[in-house]
Design goal:
It comes from Monopterus albus. GO terms for molecular function: G protein-coupled receptor activity; olfactory receptor activity. It is found in: Cell membrane. The relative contact order is 0.13. Helix content is 74%, strand content 5%. With 325 residues, it is mainly alpha-helical. It has a 3-stranded mixed sheet with strand order 4-3-5. The radius of gyration is 22 Å and the shape is globular. The protein has a single domain (21-307), classed as Rhopdopsin 7-helix transmembrane proteins (Up-down Bundle).
Length: 325
């Protein structure tokens, strides 16, 4: 009886036919060397939180009232929440022998990870449209990009990202899980959890592939269309105007390139069968953390308005720090 009870506990089952929790394998194969990735991941997460929080706080400056900063504020918020769905749980896993997550918690993590990833791409699409209007229709920019239009665009981005992962998560949730319950990933990744289902998942594969393609292709096509139209408009401008217009797009174009290129690498790592689970996890973590990590740097690097606003924000903090001490 004692052996049976132990087996049931390890498999996370209260009865022979259902799993009550999952075990996240993470990078457990590192054995006694988990502190190096723990410290790297912790520092990266702190920088993501600090950098994006600074962007959000800085953009409360009334001098930064253009639509681009409004969208950037939302992108920074998404980056913070997106990384928070996975990284804290991974960090906790480094500090414990076994990283356990409940079944409801697993599917909530799965859904929000996919949703927020899709939200980030949708907001990048909205920002591409903003750049298109600013460059191709500069005289009508303020009349087109009103506060109401900005709000509708952001609402559309959130609505699209809420819809895309919902069928995938719902199908995965309805599948039976009777063990084993070890998720070979750092978090509840859909493809890793799907392998644990005690049922035929061929429909799941088709549905997930369709909605993954939808969540990437629609933003990708719209962003590409925006930049094709911007390119046509740039070809009709003088050299000075062309350089100025390119500078306004450089940061966004860089972020889009990094985001979609890293997504392609993740897809390849999942399709290449000779990659170990640890390599797939490292690639997935880099994909999840790279864009949120670089966003504050890229957008503030060549943006003088944002740099000056950050300086003003830091100056406001200094007197408060002196008084407190």
């Amino acid at each position: 009886m004692l052996t049976s009870h132990r087996s049931s506990s390890v498999n996370g089952t209260s009865d022979p036919d259902s799993v009550s929790f999952f075990i996240l394998q993470g990078l457990s194969s590192l054995g006694d060397r988990p502190m190096i990735p723990f410290v790297i991941l912790l520092l990266g997460y702190v920088i993501i939180l600090g950098g994006n929080s600074m962007i959000i706080f800085t953009l409360t400056d009334p001098k930064l009232h253009s639509p681009m900063y409004f969208f950037l504020c939302h992108l920074s918020f998404v980056d913070i929440v997106y990384t928070t769905t996975t990284i804290p749980k991974m960090l906790a896993g480094f500090l414990s022998d076994v990283s356990i997550i409940s079944v409801p918690g697993c599917f909530l993590q799965m859904h929000f990870f996919m949703q927020l990833n899709c939200t980030g791409h949708a907001i990048l699409t909205v920002m591409a449209y903003d750049r298109y209007v600013a460059i191709c229709h500069p005289l009508h920019y303020t009349s087109i990009m009103t506060r109401r239009v900005q709000t509708l665009l952001i609402a559309g981005a959130w609505g699209f990202s809420t819809f895309c992962p919902l069928p995938v998560t719902t199908i995965a949730l309805l599948r039976p899980y009777c063990g084993p319950n070890v998720v070979k990933h750092g978090w509840c990744d859909f493809s890793s959890v799907r392998r644990l289902a005690c049922a035929d998942t061929s429909v799941d594969n088709i549905v997930s592939l369709f909605f993954a393609a939808l969540s990437l292709l629609i933003p990708g096509v719209l962003i590409l269309t925006s930049y094709v139209l911007i390119g046509i408009s740039l070809s009709r401008m003088g050299a000075g105007q062309r350089l100025k217009a390119f500078r306004t797009c450089a940061a966004h174009l860089t972020v889009v390139s990094i985001s979609f290129t890293s997504a392609a690498f993740v897809y390849i790592s999942y399709r290449v069968t000779n990659f170990s689970p640890e390599v797939r996890i490292i690639v997935a973590v880099l994909y999840a953390a790279l864009t949120p990590f670089l966003n504050p740097v890229i957008y503030s690097l060549r943006n003088k308005e944002l740099q000056e606003s950050i300086r003003r924000t830091l100056v406001r903090f200094r007197p408060a720090t002196v008084l407190a001490s």
